[in-house]
Amino acid sequence: MISSSSENVTKLNSINRRMFITGSLKFFVMIGLVSRLFFLQVKENKKYLTLSDKNRIREWKLPPVRGEFHDYFGNVIAGNYEAYQLHVIPEEVEDFRYVVYRLKDLLNLSDKEFKKVLKKKNEIKPWETLIISDNLNWSNFSKINNHLYDLNGVKPVISISRNYPFKDNFTHVLGYVSQANESDIENTEIIKKNFVPGLKVGKVGLEKSLEEKLIGSNDIERYEVNAYGRRISQLEFQKGEKGKTLRLTLDTEVQKLANELLKDKAGSICVMDIYTGSIIAMHSSPSFDPNLFVFGISQDDWQIIRNNPMKPLVNKTLQGNYSPGSTIKPIVALSALENGIIGTNFTVNCTGKTEMYGQTYHCWKKKGHGFVSLRNAMKQSCDTYFYEIARKLGVDKLSETAKKFGLGKEVFGDLFNIEKRGLVPNTQWKKNALGKGWLLGETMITGIGQGYIQTTPIQLCLMTAQIANGGFKIYPHIIVDENKESPEDKYTKLFKDAKNIRIVQDAMFGSTNEVMGTSYRSRINDPKYQFAGKTGTAQVKKITERDRELDLKTFEIPYEERDHALYIAFGPYKHPRYALSIIVEHGGNGSTTAAPMAKKLFKLIIDRHELRDSISSKKYMDI
Amino acid sequence: MYQHTRINSSNFNIFQKFKNFDYILLACILLLGFISLATMYSTDGGKILFHTKSHFIKLVVFTIMMLIFSFINIKYWFFIGYFSYIVVIGLLIWTYLFGVTSSGSQRWIDLYFINLQPSELMKIFIILCLAKYFHRMRLENVNSVYTILTSLIIILLPMGLVIVQPDLGTSLLIAISGIAVLWFAGINHKYFIYTMLGFVISLPFIIAFLKPYQKLRVLTFLNPDRDPLGAGYQIIQSKIAVGSGGIFGKGFLKGTQSYLEFLPEKHTDFIFTLFSEEFGFVGSFILLLIYTIIIYRIVAIGASSRSYFGKIFCYSFGAAIFVYITINMSMVLGLLPIVGSPLPIMSYGGSSMLATMIGFGIVMSARVHNQQSIA
Asked: Do B281 and A37 count as a contact with CB atoms less than 8 A apart?
């Protein structure tokens, strides 16, 4: 049974040799493992540490708090309010069905809303927040709070949301905010950067164009999460910055009056400081309540706004291209004077119509005005007189003056992307745009603000302001920005001879404050409020001979065919400070519809002037 | 039968047996046990929960068992060599027929107080069986066709039974255990080289026969980033955990990767990842050092063993343990595809620890009875 010793020795030699081979193999493999460990843990440590942090740290962004809008006096016109919301985290609810039916009862949710909630619940992860309602009223909110004992996992939350306290008063200036959609995110870098679900961004108006200043920055919560994305603990809370609060030059009281005056009418009112270019009021009617859009407008409300024939969605002050009608006459007169075509003593005999190349041009007064001078022609708005001087002046010279005074280009630059340029025609323009030569007859009707010429209400207001301030260039603005430097060519002269400006101002004074003037009935005698203006009546369709014979009263004509009523004015006449333009679409006649509004407006504006002045000079007192 | 025993069994008392103990090996095993317990405590999130408790109980029971086993004379281990192998084969057949199925494979036998995984036991008893087979064999017979075929059958039989469970990883480890014995028994090294070559050549065909999830593992190993949230997830997360540990680690109980459940299988196959994340390069190095010392002691005991059986068992067991460690760590460090292979003692799992402790017990017995020669 015992092996021979020599056999044993060879066997032992064999096993020991192999043991050594194995041993050295083991040694090298161990070295390999250690170097792998070294590689991962020492050499590549940084990379894996970052990866591990990326794994475990997740950021939650909260919607930023939007900057506010204040009016000139510091009243909040677009602010933030605390919206009562109801959140549920499905995971934390023991019996989701019970709770959700209980909520349905308490809040009187309609079946449609209820289904929406259930659908949303299925789309999210169980630990994510389900928003049952984003804007509860107080009574429902308190009801929920009273029943909380039986609503496990339901969280009444107070969150910040946009509010427009003056409802429809500032709609077209401010615009409104609403849920950001895909194109908002794609097109605007700042929205993309700050996007969180439920973020509300500006859709139109200043809310849109000043998005970058208003949006603020997100609060960021950093959480440690586990492999399933569930929050374990909060690591950091980084407070975001509230968006910039912007003060506007607007006066809420004037704005409100403008809204009231244009109630049930379509049109626009804008008021401007003739020296600073500050917009005091800018209103387009009809308006709508921007609060409706904040949480998504209901289909019914949307249809009402969209189908309104007066087009509430259009900002008529900036987007409305209107024939200026007789309100262009101050510029025509000024251009004629400046170019030396006429003097103050130049007269024309108005017989009610004038013939030119077989075409008849009518004055608004059938019987005619007789012999009229410039002053009288402006005062009574004699069309024949302006046909004549326009003919002598020529459209190219007229358009030059008109453009100098702000017609034919955007008043606010690119602040509002919807703003229209209007149109100041000249011979070159017609050749380029229509490919036809200019006709003399077209010059004549341009002289009374008809034909190709088109202006927006804000342009008319600027034009008036620059006549009123003695013919100096101003830059209208709506945002109070103390740091902004005024453009270099501010207050450059727009005239050749200051006398000409005074002649036009005086003629406008006559038009409002003297017997026979077109807006005489709307005058204010008190020199404190006394203003000077020019009425306008813009035809919407060509007046036929038949119409002339019928001579219908405004209310007898169908709404869409009635003339637009316009009025431009500045005041107080002795020391002018404010200019305004009023347009009432299909309002009939400038002197009966638009001018009386100016009377009410000037009363208020001038009454509030001292208050306004005290604020603007305040900053000097602080120093 | 005792004529070659230098020390008479009558004066070879308990006291002398204690004196003969390898205390370095014992200390290393206990240290390892302690480390594994601490790591298990960390996997439970710093609380004494099920895994920690269970691991502790097993550790205590099996260590005591190991000590008892070391007093059993090596010749008795020699004696039960074939028998134990046949018993485990029986258990494997039993598993195949009546085993408990869990996560898709039928590996366990329900013993009421413990779920036994016979394939783990086979890793030890195949060594025991083959060591006995080669103990008396003359060197010139070792390379005979008959011997080689017999030993291959001894290896392939349990492998087949484990593969059908299915458990590719364990069956490979069993094969490695067996092959280690063949290597030390002196089978011509040409055969190993030819087999290796044959294996490499037939690799594509083997891959064709793999189950889809096994194929996926191989593909994933080759490029873990091809599906980072699916199949590659384990490798990537494990590498992140180890790599983010740095030199000194994130600190005990502070491993974010494992604590936040990014690590899969952190109790079992990926226990080293967690340890490495918390204790860093230094800790991992020390752990490797402990394993190295253990293996070194096992080999040293083999070298000092008088009996050929003792030698061949110790060498093979040392080599097998070494391969288990290497495979587990390579897998965790992204050097090998993922195969289910526990880290000896460290990993949670009763059967694996039982098998390892039996192995240590036999090694210790070989040490205690190193002057015992076996006829």
From this structure: yes
Partner-chain contact A22 B295, CB within 8 Å: no
ipTM of the complex: 0.90
Look at A12 and B315 and tell me if their CB atoms are within 8 Å. no
Contact A16 B246 (CB under 8 A): no
Chain B residues touching residue A3 (CB < 8 angstroms) = 136, 138
Chain A residue closest in CA terms to B278 = A41
Q: Which residues in chain A have their CB less than 8 angstroms from residue B302's CB? A: 19
Contact A48 B243 (CB under 8 A): yes
Is residue B72 over pLDDT 50? yes
Q: Specify the 3-state DSSP secondary structure of A290.
A: coil
The phi and psi torsions of A344 (rounded to 5 degrees) equal -65, -25
| Chain B residues near residue A29 by CB distance under 8 angstroms | 322, 326
Strand pairing report for A246-247 and A69-70? parallel
Displacement of CA A419 from its chain's centroid (Å): 10
Cβ neighbours of residue B163 closer than 8 Å, sequence gap 6 or more = B171
SS3 at position A518 = coil
Predicted confidence (pLDDT) per residue in A352-402, tens digit = 888 887 888 888 888 889 999 999 999 999 999 999 999 999 999 999 999
Q: What is the pLDDT of residue B230?
A: 62
Each residue of A192-238: pLDDT tens digit? 888 877 788 899 899 999 988 898 888 888 888 777 767 777 888 88
Beta strands in chain B (DSSP E): 100-102, 105-110, 115-116
Predicted confidence band of residue B127 (pLDDT cuts 50, 70, 90): very high
Mean pLDDT of B228-252: 83
Considering only alpha carbons, which residue of chain A is nearest residue B315? A19
Give the nearest chain A residue to B135 (CA atoms).
A11
The per-residue pLDDT of chain B, averaged, comes to 87
Q: Contact, B80 vs B375, CB < 8 A?
A: no
C-alpha closest to that of A389 among A401, A398, A402: A398
Beta carbons of A40 and B333 less than 8 Å apart: yes
Question: Does a cis peptide bond (omega within 30 degrees of 0) precede residue A572?
Answer: yes
CA distance B184 to chain A (A): 5
Q: Pick A38's closest partner by Cβ from B262, B281, B302.
A: B281
Across the interface, whether the CB atoms of B244 and A33 are under 8 A apart is answered no
Output DSSP code: residue A360: E
Q: What are the chain A neighbours of B303 within 8 Å (beta carbons)? A: 16, 19
- Residue type at A316 in one-letter notation: K
Choosing among A6, A52, A230, A231, which should be mutated to test the B contact, i.e. which has the most B CBs within 10 A? A52
Q: Would you say residue B186 has pLDDT above 90? A: no
More confident residue, B262 or A578: A578
Token readout for A577 is: 């400070």
Residue in B256, B299, B312 closest to A52 by CB: B256
> Cβ(A573)–Cβ(A531) under 8 Å?
yes
Give the contacts of A327 (CB within 8 A, at least 6 positions apart). A449, A460, A534, A535, A536, A566, A567, A568, A581, A590
Instruction: Give the max Cα distance, chain A.
Output: 155
pLDDT value of residue B231: 60
> What is the biggest distance separating any 2 CA atoms in chain B, rounded to whole angstroms?
67
Its pTM stands at 0.66
Taking each helix axis as running N to C, give the angle between helix A383-393 and helix A329-338, from 0 to 180 degrees, rounded to the nearest 10.
40
User: A594, A566 in Cβ contact below 8 A?
Assistant: yes
Whether chain A has a CB inside 8 Å of the CB on B183: the answer is yes
Q: Which residues of B touch A44 (CB under 8 A)?
A: 243
Give the closest residue to B124 by CA, choosing from B164, B65, B165, B166.
B65
Instruction: Give the whole-angstrom CA distance, residue A166 versus residue A200.
Output: 19
- Check residue B296 and give its pLDDT: 95
Which pLDDT band holds residue B208 (cuts at 50, 70, 90)? confident
